[in-house]
């Protein structure tokens, strides 16, 4: 396939572009800067200048493609307004991509998150929460999946809160940044809440499989580690940075504090069985050993 990719130079996106190119696909990727365009060109993809707010560029990219993988999202989580703005921008972008693909039966693979379910690991059939700091994103994802009835082979790859590579990325990466800033490797609550995780390269394989195989209107879990206790994650970070490890007030973690404090293990049993996906990269706790002091 000739695949249009948004967010193709990020931690996940660069792995997805490499995975696609390594498996016989060609890639047209959105590039918001000269540096991004250069990185995409070096990787073997064709850059298309524009950003997520450039709806004409998104239409052009989708029109040229046999399928679309959407990965771009604003990563400013410092305030509720910033999060809301990023969700609004993405929602508009998804509406345009979906509109361009209507009636074509072409695949549109988008990013979602694994939902928390009290008392057990979430599965692919559990609904996404539509309240809280990122509830608007869940509504946008649901709207895309509903396009299955309008001739779009839409699917969602649900990512865990930590997608890592070389010790960086996701919620665990945020804990590392906060530890460097505060001098304490902290965690909210008692630290027994569990976070699922996946290596970026394993996630990239699942995005490709969803593009190639996923039926319309389906969701898939890119989960390699069902759930590590947050205090165990903080312990590795503290050891690597030679910092004390202890609980800290939820407010320390900003607008995402309530999510940081939530127990949210997740299963990928169905995804592995149905799509033949099998993670092969290091676990989160193993990968955190790459943190540099």
Summed up, what is this model?
The protein has 293 residues and is α/β, with parallel strands linked by helices. The chain contains 11 helices and 12 strands.
Notable traits:
alpha/beta, 19% strand, 2 domains, UDP-galactose 4-epimerase, domain 1, 12 strands, 7-stranded parallel β-sheet, Rossmann fold, 11 helices, globular, 293 residues, 3-stranded mixed β-sheet, single chain
Question: Can you lay out the helices and strands and say which pair or pack?
Answer:
Elements: E1 2-6, H1 11-21, E2 26-31, H2 34-43, E3 46-49, H3 55-64, E4 67-70, H4 80-101, E5 107-113, H5 135-145, E6 153-159, E7 162-164, H6 170-182, E8 185-187, E9 194-199, H7 200-213, E10 218-221, E11 225-229, H8 230-241, E12 245-247, H9 257-260, H10 269-275, H11 284-287
Parallel strand pairs: 1-2, 1-4, 2-3, 4-5, 5-6, 6-10, 7-9, 8-12
Antiparallel strand pairs: 9-11
Model description:
It comes from Pseudonocardia acidicola. It holds the Pfam family Epimerase. This is SDR family oxidoreductase. InterPro entries: Epimerase_deHydtase, NAD(P)-bd_dom_sf, NAD(P)-dependent_oxidoreduct. It is built from 11 helices and 12 strands. The chain has 2 domains: 187 residues, NAD(P)-binding Rossmann-like Domain (Rossmann fold, 3-Layer(aba) Sandwich); 82 residues, UDP-galactose 4-epimerase, domain 1 (Alpha-Beta Complex), CATH 3.90.25. With 293 residues, the protein is an alpha/beta fold. The chain is globular, with a radius of gyration of 18 Å. α1 packs across α7 and α4 packs parallel to α5.
């Amino acid at each position: 396939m000739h695949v249009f990719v948004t967010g193709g130079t990020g931690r996940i996106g660069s792995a997805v572009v490499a995975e696609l190119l390594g498996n016989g696909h060609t890639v047209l990727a959105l590039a918001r800067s000269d540096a991004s365009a250069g990185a995409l060109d070096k990787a073997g993809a064709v850059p298309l200048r524009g950003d997520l707010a450039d709806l004409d560029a998104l239409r052009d990219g989708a029109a040229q493609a046999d399928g679309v993988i959407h990965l771009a999202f604003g990563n400013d989580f410092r305030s509720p307004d910033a999060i809301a703005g990023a969700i609004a921008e993405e929602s508009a972008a998804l509406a345009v991509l979906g509109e361009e693909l209507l009636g074509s039966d072409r695949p549109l693979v988008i990013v979602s998150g694994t939902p928390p379910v009290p008392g057990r690991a979430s599965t692919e059939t559990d609904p996404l929460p539509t309240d809280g700091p990122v509830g608007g994103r869940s509504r946008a994802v649901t709207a895309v999946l509903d396009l299955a009835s309008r001739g779009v082979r839409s699917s969602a790859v649900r990512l865990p809160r930590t997608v890592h590579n070389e010790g960086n990325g996701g919620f665990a990466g945020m804990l590392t940044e906060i530890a460097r800033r505060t001098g304490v490797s902290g965690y909210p609550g008692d630290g027994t809440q569990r976070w699922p995780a996946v290596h970026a390269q394993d996630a990239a394989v699942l995005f490709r499989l969803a593009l190639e195989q996923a039926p319309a209107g389906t969701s898939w879990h890119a989960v390699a580690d069902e759930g590590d206790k947050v205090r165990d994650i903080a312990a590795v970070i503290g050891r690597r940075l030679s910092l004390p490890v202890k609980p800290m007030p939820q407010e320390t973690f900003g607008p995402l504090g309530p999510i940081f404090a939530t127990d949210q293990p997740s299963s990928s049993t169905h995804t592995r069985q149905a799509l033949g996906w099998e993670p092969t990269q290091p676990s989160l706790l193993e990968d955190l050993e790459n943190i540099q002091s």
